[in-house]
Amino acid sequence: MKDDILLFDATLRDGSHAVKHQIGIDIFAEYCRQIDDAGLYCVIVGHGNGLGASSLQVGLSKHTDEEIIRAARANLKTTRLGVYMIPGFGTITDNLEPAMEAGVDVFKIGCHCTEADTTREHIEFLVKNNKETYGVLMMSHMVTPEVLLEQARKMSTYGARGVVVMDSAGAMLPDDVKARIGNLSRNTDLLIGFHAHNNMSMAVANTMAALDSGASIIDGTLRGFGAGAGNCPLEIACAILQKQGKLSDVNLYKLMDICDDIIEKKLNYTQGISTLSLISGMSGVFSAFSEHVKRASVRFGVDPRDIFIELGKRKVIGGQEDMVVDVAMNLSQKNKIDDTSYLLESLL
Which of 82, 139, 182, 330 is a plausible cystine mate for 213, CB 3.0–4.6 Å? Predict the structure, then answer.
């Protein structure tokens, strides 16, 4: 486990999923003001799916990217300000350039774990403009450690300072994490980060496994505030590390106070693992699909667990939320056919 551990706080980005992207601008401002001197490396803000993602498909944000960035920038004096972007949702001209002008320090460019090629133009643009840039490989449970290494090496050639491995569905166990992070750490010079989801209550254990395997970046959220079952709670990870004599410069009490005062009281969020989050992890489906699955379940009268299982069979990834309706509709039609067949058989 490395001593120089960097804390990336995604509370105001991944947490946006938990409240359907309706975090008020006052919360962005107050959160950043309170956490500024807590000892974190950077605070990532924005829509849950990143810059340019506000849409009917994945959810409309209460505020524009620019409004969110400017509110955060005005209240972060010593902590780096970061944003996340998935090419396809956002572009260089419409999103990265305005973010640079608004004072963003750290950029994370994400893609599905087999599609690093899609990030090349964006990472190279940011590096050319002397911006601290990280690649992000989402849904990393879906590929072998060898494939993940190949994709991370591509991001390295584009100029990325590091790569963050996302367990977007909370589907990994510690051995899965060790295999992937260890392989990256041994075979690249990149800073390696790990972003856990807690669908099977493994987020903290997986994060510790990542650090033991050579990762130096924890990408988590306070109180685990995030999509589905949430993420690795930064305050818990910090408490464990401080008990091991690490991260002594992080103000754990301040993190705890923000958990209670903002995450729980003002955002009304308490971490918990619902049965849907559990089935999402077992199926290997992106945690942010939960709200879409719930709505489709009610609309078509089918079991949401069946929807998740079928989505897992189809190996859906982030950005394919429209598949939820298709799956629910098909399951509904299948159920009607099965019911009709049963009725006919009972009459014979």
Answer: 182
pTM for this structure? 0.84
Give the model confidence (pLDDT) of 44-90 as tens digits: 999 999 999 999 989 999 999 999 999 999 999 999 999 999 999 99
Amino acid at 21: H
Please tell me the distance from the alpha carbon of residue 219 to that of residue 207, in angstroms, as a whole number: 9
Round to whole Å and give the CA distance between 305 and 278: 10
How does the average pLDDT of the chain come out, rounded? Answer: 93
Using the structure block, give the residue that is written with the tokens 């009917």.
56
CB 84 within 8 A of CB 110: yes
* 82-123 per-position pLDDT tens digit: 999 999 999 999 999 999 999 999 999 999 999 999 999 999
Domain made up of 275-347: CATH architecture:
Orthogonal Bundle (1.10)
Residue in 17, 21, 122, 197 annotated catalytic: 17
Q: Is 70 helix (H, G, I), strand (E, B) or coil?
A: helix
Residue 47 among the catalytic residues: no
The label of the residue with tokens 């505020």 reads 63
Alpha-helical runs (H) found in 259-321: 275-283, 290-300, 304-313
Classify domain 6-264 at the CATH superfamily level.
Answer: Aldolase class I (3.20.20.70)
Residue-wise pLDDT for 158-201, tens only, equals 999 999 999 999 999 999 999 999 999 999 999 999 999 999 99
Quick one: 36 exposed, middle or buried, by C-beta within 10 A (0-12, 13-18, 19+)? Answer: middle
